[in-house]
Amino acid sequence: MGSITPPGPALLRGFRLRRGRRRAVILAVLVAAFLATFLIDWAVTLPAVGATPAPTASASASASSAPADTAPASTQPCTVSPTNGCIQGTITDSDREPVEGVDVDVTGPDGFSRTATTADTGRWSVSVTQAGSYTVSVDQSTLPKGQYLTNAADAKRKVTANLNQNVGQIFQLSDQRGVTTTDDATSVTPQRAWQQFASGIRLGLLIALASVGLSLIYGTTGLSSFSHGEQVTLGGLLAYLFANQLGWNIWLTGVVVTLLCAATGYLQDAAIWRPLRRKRISLTQLMIVTIGLSIAAQYAFQYFFGASTVRIQQGNPETIAFAGVTLTVQSYVAMAIALVVLVATGLFLAKTRFGRATRAVSDNPALASASGIDVDRVIRFVWTLAAGLAGLSGVMLGLVLNGVNWQTGLQLLLLMFASVTLGGLGTAYGALVGSMIIGIVVELTNLVLPGDFKYATALVILILILLFRPQGIFGRAERIG
């Protein structure tokens, strides 16, 4: 019976080195998690920047004793806070110019009644201190001579307002008298279709920021990450933490949040995905891990930030009319940033050596490894890039949607999966094209379907893709079995 040769000194040193490196990574993850938990727990206890203090008992008594329907017209801007919400909007004439001096009446629960007058920017706003259903009415007697609402029945609208939230209403005037039937208030007009089309481009660009990373993860690892939506939520909530609670500049906030989210992607691969890959865990088991991470992250967001919607910027967003489309300033800036980042990502993948290595791993990991490419290094980079892009998408969405909450990313996850499936799984360019198509179709669906029913369109598209072209637009058909 042969003797067992003890391991040599070099092998023992290599084993100790790998064990020491693993311990260092685990220790770094634990320290980072502790510091992040402490920072978030400390920051969310700070009072919101610009928040309106709760009224005193005497002030409340004075306010309740004053007749609600005698409140004077106001042109003062409204700022949301945990104690009040804002109903605001703009009124523009037939030439898309702001209209000044138009009275807007807002009535609500418990006899609430306020009147706001549009300023020279066409903006009006009313502060509410109680969540509920409100009626917004335009006093047509104060409209400029020769200007009318595009639809007379649209002069009175029902809105639902919440505290710490902004509700926007835009009224458009015309030089022709509007119809008086309610049915035409929801009719499909070229102007409305063009507005929804522009909103679809905006949604598509912001979804593409997250979908490109999701597609790259699938291409290099074969894993469909169900926790990718929470990276979007993390970006939005961290932006709220730095910009709102700590008062940072919004540009600095965007850069720092993107880097922090990218770091979480790096740490995820170092602490979870690389060890699991080395143990040759199946993709089904890895996918279940991503589902668990998604649920754990959602509960963590609720614990630290609560279940309510929070706003990154408290001020009322200003709108700009361009080419017949009226969007907020944040929307135009977010679209420009998303377009620049997506173009830069595409050029990186196409023109740089590391980008070509990433595409090689996505095409065939085994062949790429045989060619001398460090596959683990490429995958680590993909996780980092994907998390950073998702975090940036969360910041942009939080600014465009006027708020973010613990399930923002979860609500967009179906749109992201539909986008990468439509474009072709594993292809970054396919994810971009698929996101644009999904965004436009979803927003145009809002012309005929009310509310969040439009998101069901993504599910219909996903089913049709799987039935008629499972490989997607840019995907390749493969033989299975």
Automatic annotation (TrEMBL):
Stretch forming the signal peptide: none
What sections of the protein cross the membrane? Answer: 24-44, 203-226, 246-268, 280-301, 321-349, 381-401, 413-441, 453-474
InterPro entries attached here? Answer: ABC_transp_permease, BCAA_transport_permease
Q: Where do the record's region annotations for Disordered lie?
A: 53-117
Molecular function per GO: transmembrane transporter activity
Which SUPFAM superfamilies does its entry note?
Cna protein B-type domain
**Record's bilayer topology term:** Multi-pass membrane protein
Biased region (Polar residues) positions are 76-92
Q: Cellular location of this protein?
A: Cell membrane
Segments of skewed composition (Low complexity):
53-75
Cite the Pfam families for this sequence.
Answer: BPD_transp_2 (PF02653), CarboxypepD_reg (PF13620)
Protein family? Belongs to the binding-protein-dependent transport system permease family. LivHM subfamily.
- Know the name of this protein? Branched-chain amino acid transport system permease protein
- Top-down, what is the taxonomic lineage of the species of origin? Bacteria, Bacillati, Actinomycetota, Actinomycetes, Micrococcales
